[in-house]
Amino acid sequence: MISSLKISNRARPLLGTIVEIGVHAEEDRCFHEVISKAFEKIERIERLMSRFDEDSEVSKINRLNVGDELTVSSDLMRVLKLSCEVSKLSGGVFNISPMSMVDGDVLELNANERIRRVQNGPIDLGGIAKGYAVDQAVEYLKGANVGSAYVNAGGDVRSFGQPHKIFVRHPTEPNKSVASVSLHNNALATSANYYEEINADQSGLIVYPKTGQRATSGASVSVMAPTCMVADALTKCMLMLKEKADLLLHQFDARGFLVHGNQVTSFPKKNQ
Amino acid sequence: MNDDWFKLIGVPLASLAVASHVCAAEYLTVEQAQKLMFGNEASFEKADVKINRAAKKAIKAASGADVDRRVLPTWKVFDGGNLSGFFIIDEVIGKHDYITYAIALSPIGEIKQLEILVYRENYGYEVRNPRWRAQFVGHDSKTTLDLGEEIKNISGATMSCRHITEGVNRVLATYDLFLKDQ
């Protein structure tokens, strides 16, 4: 009976946060190796996609000159493809090259995992790679015949099997919770300007680079989606687009809620 | 699309009341951290550093950090009979958080690893950010860590960062004064 299962969880510092992996099992002793291997999956994604690691594929891309080509891993290509898709569907609000200040993509994605740099500007997958790493760990655990587990990378969470309850912090009072979400075979990601000093104009630190528009300060967005990569990416869009993100959420079978002050607004709106 | 996929906590209709949310995470026991940092084969010999009034002054002078503790829990670590480093438990208690962490030092006092063992917090989640913590690695007591200089600050986690930065400086100074020549 699943409710009688014991949880075996461990945590390691990865992806710029603490990553927790919990496995529900009758006997925890046999799952330590599985959990270790799930961590290794995350470590691999971090090595590929960290812009702080000069040996990562992202750093190699950032050293390319315009016109240069590179063969990348299928993992990176998957993340780049979804990034492009979300970028297009969000009208450029989601952008893996926010500092480039150029129109259009900085990379051309071609067959056989080949990419070509078409414009200058560093890329940063910080808005999506963490979710992908969580997904990879989850997929590994599923393949290892784990019946129920969760992976939580600092609030980017995905679970399968037994429901996993998540509490969402209040954006301006992060010592308090405003909502709970029960995950069941899906993912939740939250973005907020937690802890920031609120500017006099109530603007926040998350910036839409093309216009310089800032996300509203003191707001948080939580998105539930089938995968953590999608949830991760869509939080950034929703924080900026708010109700304009409805169509985007529909397209990815996602839903979210925004907390601002004393208001909680869910998206997409009903009857859509 | 219905809204029943999430539950608001304590919401009286139009206004939003919030529930207290204190995060208490216990990631590793001391024994687990020891094995994690030095391996299963390492042996640990208790070598606590007693900190009297004079020692407090010396540590404060060397590190700039206040010293409240009378004992710094410390282990000498041996591997195959050879000293492989020091394992030290420290804690920082701030306005919003209570953090117990372990530091693994090499035999020459360089930080090999820093792991947070217990974290009870209202604010400052980012101090568990490994990129931030990784900035400590390789430092020794010859360089006093300074928030914003050697150690980058993290927006919004200033207090916790400052506490851990001070704690690490304090531990390095303690090593330099009392463990270095052992």
Shape field of chain A: globular
What is the residue-averaged pLDDT of chain B?
75
Distance between the termini of chain A: 39 Å
So what's the oligomer here?
Answer: heterodimer
List SSEs of chain B in N-to-C order. EEEHEEHEEEEEHH
Number of helices of chain A: 6
Mind explaining what this structure looks like?
Chain A is 28% helix and 32% strand. Chain A has three domains: 1-49 and 128-160, T-fold, CATH 3.10.520; 57-117, no CATH class; 163-272, Roll (T-fold). Chain A starts with 5 loop residues before the first strand and ends in a 5-residue tail after the last strand. An eight-stranded antiparallel sheet of chain A has the order 1-2-6-7-10-13-14-15. Chain A has a three-stranded antiparallel sheet with strand order 3-5-4, with helices on one face. Chain A is α+β, with helices and mostly antiparallel strands and 272 residues long. Mean pLDDT of chain A is 83; it is low at 195-205. Chain A has helices spanning 32-49, 57-62, 74-89, 129-143, 228-241, 246-251, and strands at residues 6-14, 17-25, 69-71, 107-109, 114-117, 149-153, 156-160, 164-169, 176-183, 187-192, 203-208, 213-216, 219-225, 255-260, 263-267. With 182 residues, chain B is an alpha+beta fold. Chain B has one domain (23-179). Chain B is 26% helix and 30% strand. Chain B has four helices and ten strands, in the order βββαββαβββββαα. Chain B has helices at 30-38, 53-63, 130-134, 158-179, and strands spanning 6-8, 19-20, 23-26, 43-46, 49-50, 71-72, 74-79, 82-93, 97-105, 111-121. A six-stranded antiparallel sheet of chain B has the order 3-10-9-8-7-4. In chain B, strand 8 (82-93) and strand 9 form a beta hairpin. In chain B, helix 2 (53-63) crosses helix 4 (158-179). Classes of the chains: A alpha+beta (272), B alpha+beta (182). Strand 9 (176-183) of chain A pairs antiparallel with strand 2 (19-20) of chain B.
